[in-house]
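User: Please fill in residues for this 259-position structure.
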């Protein structure tokens, strides 16, 4: 039996992070050739070795996902090596300020995540889309957390809204050319250190302990639990496959039935 993504060419930005790594491994298990990118090569090489040991195919490259020239150069190299780009997934994260009311937030802390996230999603999505429309197929995935729609998310919430807007606009533009664009939105992921830190900032703004906030959030879901990294990886592989060929321009909630 072949995998959902057999022989697909997938580029993962932020592949050394928790979400990027989980998705890269899931893509590889489903048969995709994974091109892992990030700002530091060593953890990417470890990830590529792990994927290779388990029977997958992966290549690692140092790419700054905020650098237009670096992104374009790497995509050209992928196309030259593999012939095309079938999947682009951006899991790049930033050290944003949360838990501070907008009235108390500095302009720099408000604007920084909006500028950074908008830039990386625009550059990586545009780069993939330009190549995908030529081949008449492809899937572009981005990820935003569920905290985007809550209070005290500060500039982080606005950044997530910007990412969603960019993705929906691109989906409308390239859909007729066979390219799908989707946004994954997992809830708090207890396994991810980065998201734990982000959620801790949010909980501090509410005046409660992070573990209390996580427990309360888990108990509020229909499944009485929070999603795992494996859940995110599995959903990402499915929506990137032809099985989800009718899905585009929408947010895929991976939140265990969060209210």
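Assistant: Residues filled in for all 259 positions:
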């Amino acid at each position: 039996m072949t995998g959902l993504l057999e022989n697909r060419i997938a580029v993962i930005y932020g592949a050394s992070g928790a979400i990027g790594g989980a998705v890269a491994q899931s893509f590889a298990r489903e048969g995709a050739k994974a091109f892992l990118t990030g700002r530091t090569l060593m953890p990417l090489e470890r990830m590529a070795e792990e994927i290779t040991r388990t029977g997958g195919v992966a290549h690692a490259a140092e790419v700054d996902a905020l650098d237009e020239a670096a992104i374009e150069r790497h995509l050209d190299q992928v196309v030259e090596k593999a012939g095309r780009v079938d999947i682009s997934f951006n899991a790049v994260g930033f050290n944003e300020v949360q838990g501070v009311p907008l009235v108390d937030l500095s302009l720099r802390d408000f604007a920084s995540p909006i500028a950074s996230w908008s830039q990386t999603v625009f550059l990586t999505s545009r780069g993939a889309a330009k190549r995908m429309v030529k081949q008449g197929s492809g899937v572009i995935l981005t990820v935003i957390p569920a905290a985007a729609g809550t209070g005290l998310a500060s500039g982080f919430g606005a950044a997530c809204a910007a990412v969603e807007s960019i993705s929906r606009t691109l989906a409308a533009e390239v859909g007729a050319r066979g390219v799908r664009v989707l946004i994954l939105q997992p809830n708090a992921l207890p396994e991810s250190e980065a998201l734990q830190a982000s959620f801790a900032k949010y909980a501090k703004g509410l005046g409660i302990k992070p573990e209390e906030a996580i427990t309360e959030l888990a108990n509020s879901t229909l499944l009485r639990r929070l999603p795992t990294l494996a859940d995110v990886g599995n959903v990402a592989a499915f929506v990137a496959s032809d099985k989800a060929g009718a899905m585009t321009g929408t947010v895929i909630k991976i939140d265990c039935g969060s209210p």
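For context: The CA atoms of residues 36 and 60 lie 5 Å apart.
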